[in-house]
Specification:
Length: 139
């Protein structure tokens, strides 16, 4: 296993631990947050945004290159109809189920049937979108 894969694994473990510790893996907590009944997760989201902001805007300026190789460069993707549609579908799915892909995968170990069904629905939805998108592009 190379250095990059080890760092990705450690990052994933840290991310999963953070989701579990903050209880974002519990659907009832997330749904309570989305219904504005329990705003505790706003601190989790704010903390993540602060760390990301500091890393991208401050720490990156002091490094010549990323620690695991490559270049620092802005990601210039235009806002498109597909991005907006995807964001709407994601938001509706998150609001209805209380699951986003990150927290759902982190809660797989609980053996919770709704989580497993939610992940299956995410895969089916992604497959259908890819199928329909490829059909539209070939026409």
């Amino acid at each position: 296993m190379n250095k990059k894969n080890i760092m990705v694994l450690l990052g994933g473990i840290l991310f999963g631990f953070g989701l579990a510790y903050s209880e974002m893996t519990k659907q009832e907590i997330v749904l309570s947050f989305l219904q504005l009944k329990d705003l505790g997760l706003i601190f989790v989201l704010g903390g993540a945004a602060a760390v990301t902001f500091i890393t991208i805007n401050i720490i990156a300026k002091y490094l010549k290159a990323p620690l695991l190789g490559g270049d620092f460069k802005p990601r210039l993707l235009p806002m498109s109809r597909n991005v907006i549609i995807g964001a709407v579908i994601f938001g509706i799915g998150w609001g209805l189920s209380g699951q986003c892909p990150g927290s759902a995968v982190a809660s797989l170990g609980t053996g919770n049937l709704p989580v497993i069904l939610g992940i299956a629905a995410m895969f089916i939805g992604a497959y259908l979108w890819g199928f329909l998108d490829s059909r539209n592009r070939s026409e």
